[in-house]
Structures are given as C-alpha cells and as structure tokens.
Amino acid sequence: MRQIIAMGGGGFSMEPDNLLLDSYVLAQVANERPKVCFVPTASRDADNYVERFYRAFRTLACIPSHLSLFQPNFADLRSFVLEQDIIYVGGGNTRNMLVLWKEWGLDQILQEAYEQGVLLTGLSAGSICWFEEGITDPLNAPLYKLEGLGILRGSHCPHYDGESKRRPSYHNLVLHGEAQSGYAADDGAALHFIDEQLHKIVSSRVDAHAYHVQRVGNTVTETQLAAGFLG
C-alpha cells in the first residue's frame, strides 16, 4: 500500500500543543514504534525546527530521526531513507528544496521509498512537493506555480485559510490555465491518499477543511470536502 498524507498546515511546527495530525500519521503504519524521519531541507535545516520535531515526536510512540543534506548525517542516502517507515518533510522554500533534492538524487529515492511502502507526509513545502504542481509564496512576491515530484496528479495549495492571498491566487491560476485543477487544504487539514487516490480528509481543528478547485468553462468552482475531526 502506497500512502501520502499532505497537510495544508499544522502538525508539531504550527500546533505544538495539538499533535492530532502527527499522531494520525503514525497510526497509519503497522509498526508499534515506527521510524519517522524529519526532512528539514526547505528550512535550510533550521536548528530550532529540528529541535521542535524531536521535542514533539519523543512524546509519541515512534523512533524519530532527521535527514540533513547540509551536514550529511548518513553513510548511504538511499539506505538511510529506505529503512524508514515515515518520511516527514517540513516547510520552507519549496523551490530550493526540490533543487537540492535533485542534486542529491533524493527525489528519485523518495519515489522508490514510496513504491516500497514508506509513508510520505509533510506540511506546506512538504505537502506541495508530492503533487505535479504546487502553489507557493516567495517572500515579497506574488504566489506562483512550481513543479513538484508528480507522484500525485494535479495541483495543490496549502495554508488555504492561513494567508489571505492564497484563495484568490489559486483561483486565478486555475482559471487562466496556469495551474491544473487540484486540492486546497486549510491549516490543520490533511489529505490522505492511498495508491494515488484520495482516501479521506482529516483535521486537527473543527473548522479546518479541504477543497477541490477546478475550472468549469470560464469560471472556477470550489467544492468543500468533508473532513473528519480527529479530536
């Protein structure tokens, strides 16, 4: 079974006192104490980010580790990734992250891990990266589309309710054919895909939702999708 859980936002880094999404991710793996590896490439391995990951996941039933491409902490990258149960990708600069992954060959290794049943998850950049296209927001510049790894079809926009420019920008890109139809997710909402098909939507907040956004003729339609509150 191949699984991806794409979080619009939330998890330990945004909701440190609410680990419902992180606990849900761990529960999707058969191992009682799954190996979960945090990949903080998009934040340039920000020390505080890595520390917060360990602080949170050491309270959960798992074996946490992290993967650094800036100060490599592995003997063999492929072996290190493939021995994990869960790869958890953090937020930050999506474009820079993907460039570095390709330089190291990590993009191909993640594809292989996915095919072998390693669960892939993450938020923001770590949510966008699994799709064909993602909507990202560089500092002091308009939102734009970039290409992801393409494991999941279509486009994806995280932080849908967290930033006022997200919804209109995504709608505009889809309307003008600059982005494919796809899924948007609020902070606290996660899209769970099994074998590349949307399986369910879960949330850590009652008011967090996900949406399907598509172009129909000369307009864009947004359909709210039912989310199961984990609390």
How would you summarize what this structure contains?
This protein is of the alpha/beta class and 231 residues long. It is 28% helix and 31% strand.
Q: Uncertain runs with pLDDT below 50, 5 residues or more?
A: none
- Total domains, how many? 1
Tell me the distance between the termini: 26 Å
Number of helices: 8
Structural class: alpha/beta
Shape: globular
The Rg value, from CA coordinates, equals 16 Å
CATH architecture: 3-Layer(aba) Sandwich
Oligomeric state: single chain
- Main β-sheet, in a few words? 8 strands, mixed
Write the layout of secondary structure elements.
Elements: E1 3-7, H1 11-14, H2 20-27, E2 35-39, H3 47-57, E3 63-66, H4 77-82, E4 86-89, H5 94-104, H6 106-115, E5 119-123, H7 125-128, E6 131-136, E7 144-147, E8 152-157, H8 166-175, E9 182-185, E10 189-194, E11 197-203, E12 210-216, E13 219-225, E14 228-229
Parallel strand pairs: 1-5, 2-3, 2-4, 4-5, 6-8, 8-9, 11-14
Antiparallel strand pairs: 1-10, 6-7, 9-12, 10-11, 12-13
Please explain how this structure is put together:
This protein is an alpha/beta fold and 231 residues long. It has helices spanning 11-14, 20-27, 47-57, 77-82, 94-104, 106-115, 125-128, 166-175; strands at residues 3-7, 35-39, 63-66, 86-89, 119-123, 131-136, 144-147, 152-157, 182-185, 189-194, 197-203, 210-216, 219-225, 228-229. The chain has a single domain, classed as 3-Layer(aba) Sandwich (Rossmann fold). The protein has an eight-stranded mixed sheet, sandwiched between helices. Helix 8 (166-175) links the parallel strand 8 and strand 9.
